[in-house]
Amino acid sequence: MGWDEAGSQRLGLWVLMMLGVLLPEACQAHPIPDSSPLLQFGGQVRQRFLYTDDAQETEVHLEIKADGTVVGTARRSPESLLELKALKPGVIQILGVKTSRFLCQGPDGTLYGSLRFDPAACSFRELLLEDGYNIYHSETLGLPLRLPPHNSPYRDLAPRAPARFLPLPGLLPAPPEPPGILAPEPPDVGSSDPLSMVGASQGRSPSYAS
């Protein structure tokens, strides 16, 4: 075997060794950025207050009460904090966080809160408007989501135009924390008992007497 042939064999072995090192790295799968339309809001589940001022005497937030009644409330409340969860692109369910009731709509347009999720009654198509407001329609019935008139949850149930809702992010203010235990006084470094381990002066060992 000549020097040229031996050198070629060594070069071939070196190339095979390098391929064995590099190929596993090159073949590793890298994650693809998630571009799912379900995550267009930064997460599939959002907690929001649905605010509207359409055809209302006052500016109100959609509220699902414990008895299933759906009304508008001027102030944010635990019952008006809602969880909006994407079911598929453009379609969501709306859940009252405190009451655990799903926002649903009957065939006549009645809004109500249900403890059981019914896809036909409780799925809403969400349309984003350019001004930041959203409008919602029942996915099955095609009826617009609109709060009933003030102080009347059952009249004028299916108006022609949907209400414009502004989803306001944020949680309710946290309740104030109960007063905690006061921090201990700093040790008296000039004392013979700086950590107060001995207790009252009576019965104190002469070793700790000043």
From TrEMBL:
Cross-referenced InterPro entries: Fibroblast_GF_fam, IL1/FGF
Biased amino acid composition, Pro residues: 170-187
Pfam families for the chain: FGF (PF00167)
SMART domains on file: FGF
GO biological process, one term: positive regulation of D-glucose import
Record bears the keyword Secreted: yes
GO CC terms in record: extracellular space
UniProt region (Disordered), positions on chain: 168-210
Membrane-crossing segments per the record: none
Protein family according to the UniProt entry: Belongs to the heparin-binding growth factors family.
Protein name as it appears in the record: Fibroblast growth factor
Cellular localization per UniProt: Secreted
GO MF annotations, alphabetized: growth factor activity
Keywords: Growth factor, Secreted, Signal
Domain of life according to the entry: Eukaryota
Signal peptide start and end residues: 1-29
